Amino acid sequence: MKPSLGSLLSIDQLTTEQIEAILALARRMDPNRPSRLLHGKRVVLLFYEASTRTRASFDFAAKALGAMTTLVTTTSSSIEKGESLIDTGWTIQAIGADVIVMRHPNSGSAHLLARYMSVPIVNAGDGMHQHPSQALLDALTILNHKKELRGLRVVIVGDVYHSRVARSNAELLSRFGAEVIFCGPRDFVPEVAATLAPGVAVSHDLNAALQGADVVMALRVQKERLAGRHHSVEDYIAHYQVTPHRMMLAKPDAILMHPGPVIRGMELASEVADGPQSCIHEQVRNGVKTRMAILAMVLGAKN
Amino acid sequence: MDSLLIQRGRVIDPASGVDHEMDVLLRDGRVAAVAAPGTLRGQATQTLNVRGAIVAPGLIDMHVHLREPGHSHKETKVTGTAAAAAGGFTSVCVMPNTVPVNDSVEITRWMLSPERGALVNVFPIAAATIGSAGEKLTSFAALKKAGAVAVSDDGKPILDDKVMRNVLRRAARLNMTVVQHAEDTRATVGCSMNYGPTSFRLGVHGMPNSAESSVVERDIALARETKGRVHVAHLSTREALEAVRRAKKAKLRVTAEVTPHHFTLIDENVGEFDTHYKMNPPLRSAADRDAMIEGILDGTIDAIATDHAPHAFHEKQVEFERAAFGITGLETALPIALTVLHHHFKLTLWRIVELLASNPAKIFGLAGRGTLAKGAHADVTIFDPRKKWTFDASQSFSKSRNTPFDGWNFTGRAVVTIVGGKVVYEG
């Protein structure tokens, strides 16, 4: 593979070999063992949207490799004064950033920035489009429990329509031959979702979808998105909440995942979120390792 | 006044049933004669030998945004009409969504004032309702007298049945056409492209086909009821096309235009959020695009119009969902029609001239335009259907550069554009 990835914008953009290389490198990363791999590198975290996990873990990941980080957020910058995304990018680049990690509410914003910048862009979530580092850390998590992705039955349940996590995960899992079932009410899981990648199917019946599942991935469901829809909160919980009872429909060794933030009592029952099959904390830990690998690869660090 | 003899071209003028090698004599701003080659020799002060080229009535673009007043950073009458001339258009019909909206005699006159410096004929389309707010009707008769050729609230579709009914009735009394941008905007809030696999993949809200076809069907029903004349702007969906096809069979006064991009491109061409492929109506599926071609070939579509919509760099090179809708089109419409429709789909040049000149003149009732009959205005487009060339957007006459056709190779283009007997473009 190429020594450097360039920007990381979407799962689609990566070759299978590049994905495998990132995962292999992530496995070797240890946040608790200080490294000087990215010593002297300047990582700018450009966040147009709130974030706990992604921001903190990119920050830790960069620092664990010896890089410096600077945070730029909407409310504390010239973005509030009406500066365009391209101008903000040029400014950050001129200040001396070696890489820009960006979270943005608009789909495609990372592609826009990458088109105009000469430094690599890492997409830390763009609108409803992509969240590639999440899909990579999820793959790492699944592979800690399963021999390979090929042949796995992965149920992604919740608000798929609005979810960049769902899109990135489905593209990655499909690439490696897993079967992906998007599940949820029609407003959240439209039929067109099945066209996303080969091996992706749509279901509106969670009990049926969970039969024989190896991985159950729940997505956050925002109450306000249910407002005015055909489904009330009660309906959603009744039909789509992942409960201990429903987890029993999946394979006995199935794992339960959630990208966070979890809305307990909505998409997940607390017993499941905290239960023995839950990998939610492991996902967060893998997030730091995965993002260390991503930063090392986009900056072309020799390892 | 000067006179000009256009020699040895192939004259194609569907309105007078002519397709022959003929000479055309222009004098005092009018067509003085069209006659067998050589027979008009010596009658003009100037001659133009155009052997091998097509001599057609001046092309008319029914759907153009020239942005003045209010948005002269995107385009002016000078730059927009220069682009029109280079594209072979001798007349442009300009939409009222300026700032302020063209809902008054004053603004219509302002647009038509010689001080604007237009190189080609400008025909304002006035707002149908005051401020295009969809409530109170404008003064159609006064606007028509001032020079408006049609009414439309383009971009702000008239959704209220009662208002649309009144607009159609009042326009019918004056023999004016009502142009509707058919979009149920209640179903397209927050949308920036077509609804389908591509919008889902990109995580962008999509406009369903039904948002267009439902309004077209409603308008057709109202046209039947009021005997009014509806012209469907930039038709883009197969369902709306089918509705127009049925309306025509029922002999209703319904006409439709399609843009070059809607019969050429599809939503997948948006690729990775290229805002040069963002316009409204959006690029649709391949099935819709193919239906547009079919509609052109079978005559359901009356006209090709550009929806020329210039925007500045800072309005397009932003996040896809925030980018302005629209692309430029004046310089590429005839080349695309020739390359795609004539050379690829074997549509006759006769039909191309109908779509770009004769029919637009008929639909808007532009007397003495869209034809080279004796006495008609001396608006002539001379084009070479075989000339191979590459479009370079950086060399465009338009003030803006927002086109998906940059770098496209075309076969065919305008070589001379004549307005009122005067050569305004020579390529």
Can you characterise this structure?
With 303 residues, chain A is α/β, with parallel strands linked by helices. Chain A folds into two domains: 16-131 and 284-298, Rossmann fold (3-Layer(aba) Sandwich); 132-280, 3-Layer(aba) Sandwich (Rossmann fold). Chain A is built from twelve helices and nine strands. A five-stranded parallel sheet of chain A has the order 7-6-5-8-9. Chain A has a four-stranded parallel sheet with strand order 2-1-3-4, sandwiched between helices. Chain B is of the alpha/beta class. Chain B has eleven helices and 18 strands. In chain B, the strands form three sheets. In chain B, strands 1, 2, 3, 4, 5, 16, 17 and 18 form an eight-stranded mixed sheet that branches. Chain B has an eight-stranded parallel sheet with strand order 6-7-8-9-10-13-14-15. Chains A and B meet through α4 of A and α5 of B.
Query: Largest sheet of chain B, if any?
Result: 8 strands, mixed
Report how far the terminal alpha carbons of chain B are from each other. Answer: 24 Å
Give the CATH H-level superfamily of the largest domain in chain B.
Metal-dependent hydrolases
Strand arrangement, major sheet of chain A: 7-6-5-8-9
Count of DSSP E strands of chain A? Answer: 9
Oligomer: heterodimer
What does the average pLDDT of chain B come to?
97
Which percent range fits the helix content of chain A? 25-40%
